[in-house]
DNA sequence: AGATATTTGTTCGTATGTATC
DNA sequence: GGATACATACGAACAAATATC
């Protein structure tokens, strides 16, 4: 149960976990509109406290990677439609 | 968002913030049994760290100005009923 | 309708480490 | 060495929204 991450000491845990989630979104492991792990999930998988997990999600939310609905969970944000990528 | 206090250097920040809160209680800005700003509020309003905000509240609590309930917040203490003010 | 479980939001309590004065 | 101040991190408790039974 849970990766046993040996956290580096030169960077906060919440940043390291956020980076892992970020990469999973980029890699497509977590797809748009699908749910990402709950704070409880992160606690178990990474062996961190809930407030630390909360901080991870807040960071990802503030950078627009996910959106959150209380009582439901967090979800991968849809692709950016404001950018002129598809003409 | 937040007063921009230019903290004096001759006195600890936590004491200066405590004094501000103290004065607001005296002035009636914060009334008995009503909630005073959370530690998070103080962080934002005064631009201080949470541990510093915590120190502020602890000082006010120890002098009886407020009481605290974990998970709820801190509240202005009721008027002192032990003193023989109203006969 | 009611109870329960899950999930996020928010609050305080505490400890540790680092840096500065 | 002690006091101040910051960030990090864990724990605990209360609250609200959602979903399910």
TrEMBL record, chains A, B:
Pfam families: GntR
UniProt keyword annotations, A-Z: DNA-binding, Transcription, Transcription regulation
UniProt xrefs under InterPro entries: Bact_HTH_transcr_reg (IPR050679), Tscrpt_reg_HTH_GntR (IPR000524), WH-like_DNA-bd_sf (IPR036388), WH_DNA-bd_sf (IPR036390)
Phylogenetic classification of the source organism: Bacteria, Bacillati, Actinomycetota, Actinomycetes, Streptosporangiales
Keyword Transcription listed: yes
TM stretches of this protein: none
SMART domains: HTH_GNTR
Protein name: GntR family transcriptional regulator
Domain HTH gntR-type, chain residue ranges per copy: 11-79
Organism: Nonomuraea guangzhouensis
Alphabetized CDD domains for the sequence: WHTH_GntR
Extent of the signal sequence: none
SUPFAM superfamilies in the cross-refs: Winged helix' DNA-binding domain
The organism's place on the tree of life at top rank: Bacteria
